[in-house]
Amino acid sequence: MAEKKTSACVIGGGPAGLSTAYTLSQNDIDTVVLEMGTQVGGISRTIERNGFRFDLGGHRFFTKDPEVEDLFREVLGDEIIWVDRSSKIYYHNKYFDYPLKPANALLGMGLGTTARCIFDYGLVKARGLYRKPEIVSLEDWVTNEFGGELFRQFFKDYTEKVWGIDCDRIDAEWAAQRIKGLSLRVAIKDALLPSKNGKVKTLIDKFMYPRLGIGRISENLAERVEGMDNEVRMGQKAVAVNHEGGRVTSVEVADGKGGYSLEVGELVSSMPLTGLVKVMRPQAPDDVLEAADSLRYRDLITVNLIVDKPQITDLTWIYIHDPAITLGRIHEPKNWSPAMAPEGKSSLVTEYFCFEGGEVWEMDDQALIDLTIEDLDQRLHFLRKQEVMDAFVVRIPKAYPMYELGYERRLKKVLDYVNGFTNLQIIGRYGTYKYNNMDHSMKTGMLAARNIMGESHDISQVNLDKEYHEEKAAE
Ligand SMILES: Cc1cc2nc3c(=O)[nH]c(=O)nc-3n(C[C@H](O)[C@H](O)[C@H](O)COP(=O)(O)OP(=O)(O)OC[C@H]3O[C@@H](n4cnc5c(N)ncnc54)[C@H](O)[C@@H]3O)c2cc1C
Fold first, then answer.
1. What is the rounded distance in angstroms from the CA atom of residue 26 to the CA atom of residue 232?
2. Residue 277 Cβ < 6 Å to ligand 1
3. I need a surface site. Which of 88, 135, 220, 379 has the fewest CB within 10 A?
4. Is 358 exposed, middle or buried (0-12, 13-18, 19+ CB in 10 A)?
5. Residue 83: burial class (beta carbons within 10 Å; 0-12, 13-18, 19+)
């Protein structure tokens, strides 16, 4: 059944899609959001269970873009709280402060390893004076910045746990984007000397967060969109995008009731880029489909525990580098906001980085819960098995676009194809296949809306700000 033409259709009710819909709604443009899930927020949604609230991995809000910050403040108002940041790395059966503090790192690693770290660091810096090394992979990049021993001690295991491939197969671009600001010199200086720039220090030590969880950003945006007489349609999946003469004409929607076709004037997509090219009708050329197939994502599982204890840790994030423990990161929602758990009880979110269809992904829920409790009890000593009152598992496909060596060439092929449509824009994180944080995702959404309103913005320029990553890097 065909439906009346809508001016703008947005695929995906995450922060990106809802920022587009909100901006369009404010400017009286007829907009429909199609969200295949039962809840808005996408990867940054908050799940409620018996009075406990869980993000899909801890999400802190950080931005250097005044417009995005204004939007965040506008939609959340007095829901915003400031959270003190305190993280640790677990490695070699010890906890290290993160960002690294020299005294703590030195004591933890022992004198021999510390001496090797300093020696290797001096060596790469001295070598760099007369020969510029070729930097291709993440391993090259980190070794060149920090020296081989620090790479092995602090980067290799965790990075390989997150990505599931060797560091010499990850593109240096990822490291350059994400850990650019982390230099040993800066880490040591920051630990020993008070920062000259108080603002930067504050942004690293504290962050903004919605009192009831990160999903409140999207929930508030969706409420406002609907309040301005536009629609956020839940449980509606875009399954085909029809086009003609370089323009998208309509979207086929599966709604669990036989589906319908929605004619669109403008289409903004935050669905996975690789999935979008596969549903284009007529079909995309074979080489584009092949390029899309070769772009992989890393997937995520969270195992969420409800615990009969008022508090489990005093930390915001705990990074588990130890390869003997399968889970990669932990956070205790109550340490982000007391409203995330009822009085006298607490909870933990543990993250498993994995591949959809792989060994961890395929484990059944109870086996994952048992493994998590055993590691938390027997190895990490955070809780005792009998303190766990309830547990559940969430599987999150496509959490991280993978910057594997050579991905840029293949991505360009896909982007060139998609950019050939005059009324189609791609936004967000997996929507653009870019390692975007929430603020970048929101910004891409806002810019797409403004392009529809007649302005001219290059969305691909979002998230190229060097300074942003220098401040955000210590995460
Ligand atoms: C573990 C983890 C921790 C993170 N921590 C932080 C952090 O601390 N700070 C930060 O700023 N960012 C963080 N991020 C990044 C943040 O989650 C993303 O930037 C943001 O959620 C992306 O928003 P989006 O709208 O592009 O995509 P999503 O949030 O993925 O939303 C896309 C939506 O599209 C829907 N959809 C997909 N396909 C279709 C279809 N065919 N039809 C209809 N709907 C569809 C999905 O159901 C989803 O709701 C983190 C990400 C992860 C995975």
1. 15
2. no
3. 379
4. exposed
5. middle
What fold characterizes domain 297-401?
A: Polyamine Oxidase; Chain A, domain 2 (3.90.660)
Spatial separation of the C-alpha atoms in residues 87 and 97, rounded to whole Å: 6
- Please determine, for residue 465, whether its predicted confidence score (pLDDT) is greater than 90: no
Domain boundaries, the chain: 2-44+61-81+211-293+405-469, 101-181, 297-401
Q: Is 342 helix (H, G, I), strand (E, B) or coil?
A: coil
Higher pLDDT, residue 346 or 136: 346
295-344 confidence digits (pLDDT tens): 999 999 999 999 999 999 999 999 999 999 999 999 999 999 999 999 99
What are all long-range contacts of 255-258, with beta carbons under 8 Å and residues at least 24 apart?
A: 258/1
Q: Which two tokens stand for residue 87?
A: 């993280």
Q: What is the pTM of this model?
A: 0.92
Question: Is 2-44+61-81+211-293+405-469 in CATH node 3.40.1280.10?
Answer: no
Our mutation pick for probing the ligand 1 site, out of 208, 269, 270, 329, counting the most ligand atoms within 8 A of Cβ, is 270
